[in-house]
Structure formats: structure tokens, C-alpha cells
Amino acid sequence: MTTQKSLISGKQDGQLPLLLAILAAPAGALLPVDGWSQEVTEIIVSSRRREEKLQEVPVAITAFDARTIEKLAISDTADVAYLVHGVQFDQGFSAADTRIAIRGISSERGRTSGAVLVDGVDVTGENVTSGGGSSLLNTRLLDLERVEVVKGPQSALYGRNAFAGAISYITRQPSMDEVKVRTYADLGEYSTYDLRGSITGPVIPGKLALSLNAGTFSTDGAYENNNPNVPEANSDLNGQNSSGFRLAALYTPTDTLSLTGSVSYTSTDSDPRALVKVANANTFYLMGNELPAGTTPEFSLLGNMDYGQWLGTVGSVPGNGVNLSISERTNESFQGSSDDNLLAYVKVDWALGAVRLKTLSSYISNEATLNEDPDFQDGIGTTFQGVGLSIANEYRDATDTRYYDQEFTLESAGWEPGFWLAGISGFWENTHNDDSSTGWYNDANIVFVPGLCGSNPFQAACSYSASAAAGSPAKTIDRDTSSYSVFGLVGLDLSETARLTLEGRYIYDKIHVSTNTAVDRVSQYILNIPIDFSFGAPPRLPASATQRSSTFNPRAALDYRLTEVVMFYGSVAKGTKPAGFGTAQFATPQNAEIEQEELWAYELGTKTTWLDGSVLANAAVFFNQYDNRPTGVTVTDPNTGWPAAGIVNAAGSETKGFELELQWTPIEPLTLALAYAYVDAEWTDFDFARIRANTGGVTAKDMAICGNAEGNCDGAYVAGVPKNALLLQANWTAPLTANLEWFVNTVGQYQDKRAISDRVNTAFVAAYWNAEAQVGIQAEEWNVQVYVTNLFDNDTVHWAQDYNDFRDGMYGGNNGGEPRDETIFGFVPPPRTLGVRASYEF
Asked: Is residue 392 within 8 Å of residue 380, measured between CB atoms?
């Protein structure tokens, strides 16, 4: 393996005419075209818990069928987001550090904003030590039949996590008709392979069918660490090994009763990510005013450089610029992350005359670990005045999550005025996190208070263990969640052309958290004195707190069918996230309380087909009002009086925009499609003067990031949301022989520049184009294709993250220690990759 070399930033601009000439939207990203039919073939979806034609559902939905999933190798949430306009999915420093945004509703802090479901089971989860995401979102899935992406709040039908929308995966069910065997293989560069196989068929004809599928995936990744000083650190980056299986059963003892059961297990190991520091922090402020370029950093006791950060646009970063250190515990490279995930469920569907009773019982167990270089650079760091070194040398974390979900639903069967359903559900989750990271003050090689660990006179835990021999326990966080809800839907046919749909869900949540120490990661890595060892009364440990919240989330939609192929619709919906805790910003629970978040979403849309079904045109305009949106801040710990990492509900943001989908089959072999999303997302009420009214007032850092002396960030960008996103595809499928077809499929994606942080003074990632293509032949039972991803080898960074600069950024603040300056780390994008895929069914 060799490290990838960076291409010239901005090179993609000259390729725009070529892209526009050869590409035009995803065959299947909107709707698939099967064979050579000149009509658009519609997918049947179940987004409203019953089967409907996609073009007849008054909801913005993108759907993929099994054939499209296989051709485009869709296997996880990142693959889906790439093909859906108005949806972004970003992975940060680790597999658990994920971000999903739907129509500008993102999740930088707290819970994720979009639900992810597998066969109706919510697998979204919530991370403990990284705000806004969950490692469960990166789980690879096997044997998919269909994927549906639903935009806008969908709490009534999808539950508490469908705040801004939902991604629903539907797996293949066991075949009651005949025995079928399917094989799939994908071989690519960088020692990449994806091998899968399945068998399904009846065991007791007409009564019992089983299916078993298994798969394994591996890649070395395209990059490796490049530390010239420590060769032991130079291992593969961005690699992954994953394997899993799924066993499913379908039992139909009578014509009116069916039971479906499934058990799936996936184990995934991921290398550390390839990321490069873009620049040293080089912008400084005094009382909120930017200082002239070239100002010398001040290291005096009362340093006047109150805040520094890098401001600019990240274009590309060199693939050979990754420079991670090694673990001081093992003297080896960092291991990355691992996830072991078990999902089991049982569904019952029982027809009882005029109604149907359905139940869903599910259980999830997830064990995740993370081991990485927390400063993402090699070096000893800036000297900490009078204390030691600022080096943060190892992040080591383990999280065990288990939850059980039970749902009962009663649905109408043949109700003449329309359709109705009513249900109740309960959700119980237990999450335990052990954080045994090491940082500057308890590094085994930097002991400035000998003997304190293990003999703490304050009876407080000495967390982030330096060594097991010191008797220092890990910091532990426990989170117990219970949630109960009642929900329902009524669809009424007002006339032959109009229907009113009313939905609603009442939710009650209780979230309890506890921790064994008041030290948080910010205190450990940034402040001069750890909170546990402050010169005052220590907090009573273990520290715990409980948040309770309840809400009613309604949704109303009216659709009107002007003709058989032209429908208009409008909807209004409310979504909420329950009150809880931002455990990623966690010293004691009281620092990280999050109040209930609220979203009101309004949408007008149309779905149409023209020219005997050869043209599809859908459009929607939307407006979202998001209140009580959380953001991370430094707060005063109520237990100790010391500064600590915290989180507050900053106030509100708005997103507005429109979406357009076009698909055209001008001649039998050719399908062209376009999907475009415009999203304007900004903070409308983000005032630090109000946020800090009871905590000492606006800080210099607040003034710096807001760009004014008032510390008012109204108008700030919402992180991670592009104003313009475009998806283009062309598909040519034509006969080769009497039984064979050949096809060419090209996909092109454009994404506008995006803000990296929720602030006025922020850095951006540059706009970029990406393209891929597949060429192959297919018959009824088999398919072979050659593919290329990142067709033009575009090296523009897709995402970057701002972070404290632990090596080069300690330029002033409180006694030379806080706030630490920030810089940007860019994630090296995957290079052009060639491969071949094949599948066979018999």
C-alpha cells in the first residue's frame, strides 16, 4: 500500500462541462426503470404502515428497490445519503461520531435528528461520548429488499427518533414458494472484498419458511499513517473488517395469522480515520475584535490573546499528511473502533375480521469500543504554565447498550371511509460507558501531584486512568431510558379526489444518568486544575440527575388528485426530541441538561407523471421552525464553581427551501433523472447574552465566534448543510441477445460549500463534484458489472471538523490555559477505486 497523493485543489471545476454532458440522476435514486420499458416503474412503499404506490403518498419519499440496491451496492446509511437530495451523512473522528441532516435539520449535539429503522425496529441509538450521533448508524446491512427515505417529522408512525425524518430498511422475507440461493461478490482495489450468500425456501409447505444469509466485508483502506519519527505508528487508515449473518423465519399456521422472526448479528472493526490538520490556529481576538495578521502569541500570566481559530475554506488535504502518534500504553498504533451488534425481533400479524392486530417485539445489544489519538497529531504539545504538558495521549472508551421495544397496533381492514390504526409502545434502554482515556494531568509520565490517584483525600474518583497499577478507575456514565407512547392515524376519503390524513403520538420519556466523577474531558485537557481536585468542597459522588418530558406530536396532510397522474398535497407536522443530557459534554449531569427540542414543519408539494408515464416530475417547498436547539458551551459547574464543558438549548433556527425530482425516458433504452435540493438553514435566535445571563455574562470567545461585542450569533450558519445539492444520473439498458441485457449507469453528485460550525465566524468545506459509473450485463438470474467510484479522482474534502489544537494552540486565556485555540481537521476523501461485482440466483 502507498499513501495517496493530493491532487490540485479546485481541479474539479474544469470537469463540470464533462460531468453535465455524461451524467443525469440516479436510476433508482428517484424511481427505478426496469428493463426497456418506456414507462416509469413505480415502487410500492409502506411508509404509512400499508402498501401504497410511491406517487400516491402525500409525503416526500425517496425509495430504492432490490435491483437498484444491488447495482449501486447500497449497504449502509452513508450509501443512502449519497443518493438522496436534501440528506447529508457525515462521519467525524470515529464510527460513533456521526451526523445526519435532513432538510437542514442536523444534530451537532444531543440526539440524532433522523430515525433509522430495520423492518420497523428503531436502531438509531444515541452515543454517550460523541454528541449528535450513534455508531449504530454505520452498521452494514444484509439482504435488503427496499430502502425508503421519508422527509419531515414522522413521530406518529416512526416513533421518538423521527424528528426530521426517517430512513427505513426493509429486508427480504423468507420465500414460501420455492428454494432460492443467491450469491454476491464485490472485489475492488485496496484489498477490498464483499462476499455474501443466502438461501431461503419452505420447510413446511404453506406453513413455515426459513432464510439464512451471511456476509463478510474487508478493505485495507486507501491510506496509511505517515509518522516519520515513530514507524510503529504507521498502520492502515480507513480500513474496515465486517462480518455478519441473519436468520429469519416466516410461520403461517392459519390463513389469518402469520409470525415473522429474525436474528441478525454484525461485528465490525474500523481503523482510525485518515485526517489532516489544515493549519495552525492563526486568527486572534482581543475583546471580540480580530487582531492584525502576524500578531505574536502572548504567553504571559494574563495573556491577551483570548481566542484563536482557523477561518477559511478547506479544499483538499494531502493524503500523506496524516501524522498520528502511538499509544503510550501499548507502544503500538491506535486500534480504531469496534462494534458488535445483535438485533432480534418477532412480528405477529393477525387478521380478525374488520381489524388486524399487529405486534412487534425487538431487542438490541450493541458493544462498542474506541481507541484513538485524541489530538490527531504527533508531538508533545504546548507547554502548560507551571503544571506540565498539554499533551492528550490516548482516548480509550467502551460502551455497552441494550434495549427492548414492544409495540401493539390495531389496524382497520376494509374500512370503507378510508384507513385507521391505533397503537401503544414501550421502550427501555440501558447504556453503560467506561472512559479510561489518559490526558495531561494523569499521564503516567507526567505526575505533578504524586500519590493522588488511589488515595484521593476528597473521596472523588481519579478518572481517565493513567495506569491500572495506580488504582484509578475509569470514568463511568450510566444512562437509563424509559419511554411510553400512544399513537394513531386516520385517513378519510373526503371525496373521490381528496383525502385528509390525521396522525398523532403522545410520548412520555424519563432519562436518568449518573457518573462516578466530576472530571470531564474538557477539564482534563484544557483547564489548569481538574475539577475533582479543586480548592473547595468536592461534588458528592456518584452524581446523578433525571429528566422527564412529555409531548403530543400531531401531523395533518391533505392531498388532492387533480387527475389520475397529478396530485397536490400539503402537510403540517410537529417533531420533538425528549429532554435529556448531552453526555458528550459531561462533568456532572447538571452541566449537560438538555430541554425538550421542538420542530414545526410545513410542506406543499406535487407528484405528477406525464407523456404516458415516460416523464415523472415531483416538487416540494418546505419551512421548518426549530426551537430549543442545543449547542455546546463552557459553563460554570453548579457543584464546584469551576468552568466545565456544558450544553444549553441556545434557542432557534429556521430552514426553508424546495426540492425537485425529474425523471425522463425519452427512448426505450435511456432513462435520465435529476434531483435538486435548495436549503437555507440559519440560526435565528442565538444570543450568548441571554444564554449566560446567570453565569457571568458574555465571554471573549462568545464575541469572537459571533463577530460582535454583544455575543449575538443570530444569522449564524447551521453546520453541515449545503445550500445547493444536485444529483444527476443516466441509465442505458438495452438488449444484447434474446436473454441478455447490457447497461451503463452513471451517477453524479454536487454539494455546495458547508459551514463546519454553528457560528458566524466559522470555517467551511468547499463545494465538490463526485461521480461514479457502472457497466455490465445482466440476465434474469445473474448480473456482472465493472464499476468505478470517484470517477475523476477528485480530492476535495467532503467533511471537516473543528477541534481544540492540543499541540500548537495554547495562546493565552485564563492563566495561559483556557480557552485553547481551535483549528480544523480535514478528512481525506477516498480516491478513485475500480472494482467488479457479480451476483447469481438459482
From this structure: no
